[in-house]
Amino acid sequence: MRMRNIVLAIIASMIAIPSLAAPLSAEQNGDQKKRYVFTVDGTKCTSREVVSGKVRDCAAVPDAGRAATTLEPLGIQHLALKDASGKTLFVYHTVTDSWFPAESIVPRGRFKPTAWIVVGLYFLFMVGMAWWFIRKKKTADDYLRGGGKIPWYVAGVSIFATMLSSITFLAVPTLAYLSDWRYFPLAICTILIIPLVTGCYLPFFRRLKVTSAYEYLERRFNLGTRLFGSAAFVVFMVSRVAVVTLLPALALNAATGISVDMCIVVCGAATIVYCSLGGLEAVVWSDFVQGIVLLGGALAMLLTLVARTDGGLSGVWSLAQASGKNVMWDFRWDLAEPCLWVILVQGIVMNLCSYTSDQCVIQRYMSVKDEPAARRSIWFNGALCICASFIFYGLGTVLWTHYKCHPEMLDVAMPKADSILPVFMATELPPWMAGLVIAAVFAATISTLSANLSSASTAIVADFIARFRPSIPPERQIRCGQVCTVVCGLLGVVCALVLSRMQTHALFDNFQELISTLTAGLMALFFIGVFMPRVKGIAAVTGLAANYVVCFAFKYASIPFTSHLHPFLVGGIGFVVCVAVAWVLSFLLPEKGRDLSGLTLKTLVRD
């Protein structure tokens, strides 16, 4: 299965549109593209992937299924064998390759009052935390940078919670449930790039004492580069607020019945209140709590599912191994598929973007007291990412083994593939545990939203307001930060409400590709600034423009060889183009007179 990215694989690959053909067959489509044709001949069932033409034998149809006369798609992951009267005899689950009698289907459950009490208590706790930070007196440095007094372990958990949004909480288990562990090396890349970040990038941001990461771009290159980088980041954050709010709302709506609009408004309002009034300190400490709740909820579900799978842990391993669900290393040299080499390129680019040019992350390791504390926070975050990845991928695998053993337990009317976790919560978890996990989903959503809003408001205040009005009093800076947080939050919520009324699958896919392209360019600017002292402003900006041309050409132009490259490679190619063009132009367009002391790796080592 060719996947454009992780989310596309989850959201798009299992959408079913009914279509009948003779002999007894049913087609499943994904985003209007035919993916599979299932055919039943007697007791033999086969599936054929439309794009590749690959054919495989499915589980044998039960003998009683011979009386069937029609095969129809049922929901997004099931097929129904019906007799001449239209009665469903057997149901086939396409993901776990299992048949079961129609009468054994377990009715869909709903969330119990106990679950909502747990969720309500969680929100009351978050309101209390917001009140605690509101009542504390804050300087502008406290509001925008946490005053440099955040403990390193709290900052580490905050970075972790910011990086793992509710989309990750829902998407990664669904990915492992639908396929395997092939994307796990993305987490390993976090550990691989940390020595580079702590050894080369962290000293710059700590030494320069920047409030916004983009201050460095002005000192190293020019004002225009700083303003462009900061403005682009703010647009990214508002867009991300919309998507991060919308997608979990769709999944929670499928499981709980709460309207999508209500989920969006509640999450948005709660985040705006404590983020705008409490500042970065409130955001970081709430991230700390939410990160613990997120991991606790996922771990509780993992242990519950292992216990419910036939044979326990050994049964999970045997079933997964027999069906190829635990494949992690794909050493094929096929740049059109998500093999190991493609995943490593994406993982390195994605993590370098986050840790070297994303204000959300940089703001957190600037909130601790000194450089050793910042270094410990980044390493602690890396360890948490590895542990969390094992939990989330394992959760997806045991979801598959559980429904392989008990296919009748899965809701045949599940509206979308990444509703699998919320549906499992509503149907099979004890009410108190379901409430804990729902709180974890809300926690993941709010932690990401708060990070986005806090970072966006900091960038606006530092790069635009304080930059052009340096005499503005600290009290006014705090007020401006609060207003910017509210405005960015409201824009994000409005965009989420608009997106909820549109076809979100394609929009989200396009959003991911656009963000990957633009953030790779910003990452290249920081890389050039640190490692290439010869390159000055004009050459760097020209390289950035070349990056955009190449990346958008890959997406929109009809270039023959690009159709054989996985989209994960585009960000890496754009990065190389930006660096190469800037380096070449530094010889053709030499710029004189800029003081680079303390702004490049060469001067840092000399000092």
Defining traits:
20 helices, 5-stranded antiparallel sheet, 65% helix, alpha+beta, Sodium/glucose cotransporter, 4-stranded antiparallel sheet, disordered N terminus
Overview of the molecule:
The protein has 607 residues and is of the alpha+beta class. The protein folds into three domains: 6-104, no CATH class; 149-502, Sodium/glucose cotransporter; 505-607, no CATH class. Helix content is 65%, strand content 8%. The protein has 20 helices and nine strands. The longest helix is centred in the middle third of the chain and has 49 residues, at 260-308. The protein is globular, with a radius of gyration of 25 Å.
Task: Map the helices and strands.
Blueprint: H1 6-12, E1 20-21, E2 25-30, E3 33-41, E4 44-49, E5 55-57, E6 70-74, E7 78-82, E8 88-93, E9 98-101, H2 113-134, H3 140-145, H4 152-163, H5 166-178, H6 185-208, H7 215-220, H8 223-256, H9 260-308, H10 312-322, H11 340-357, H12 359-365, H13 371-405, H14 420-428, H15 431-468, H16 474-499, H17 504-531, H18 537-556, H19 568-588, H20 601-606
Antiparallel strand pairs: 1-2, 2-3, 3-4, 4-5, 6-7, 7-8, 8-9
Helix pairs in contact: 1-5, 2-9, 2-15, 4-9, 4-12, 4-13, 4-15, 5-13, 5-15, 6-11, 6-13, 8-9, 8-14, 8-15, 8-16, 8-17, 9-13, 9-15, 9-16, 10-13, 11-12, 11-17, 11-19, 15-16, 17-18, 17-19, 18-19
Number of helical stretches of at least 4 residues: 20
Superfamily (CATH H level) name of the largest domain: Sodium/glucose cotransporter
Could you estimate the helical fraction of the residues in percent? 55-70%
CATH-assigned fold name of the largest domain: Sodium/glucose cotransporter
Q: Which word captures the global form? A: globular
Radius of gyration: 25 Å
| Biggest sheet features | 5 strands, antiparallel
| Secondary-structure element series | HEEEEEEEEEHHHHHHHHHHHHHHHHHHH
Domain count: 3
Low-confidence stretches: 1-22, 504-509
Strand order, sheet with most strands = 1-2-3-4-5
Integer average pLDDT: 75
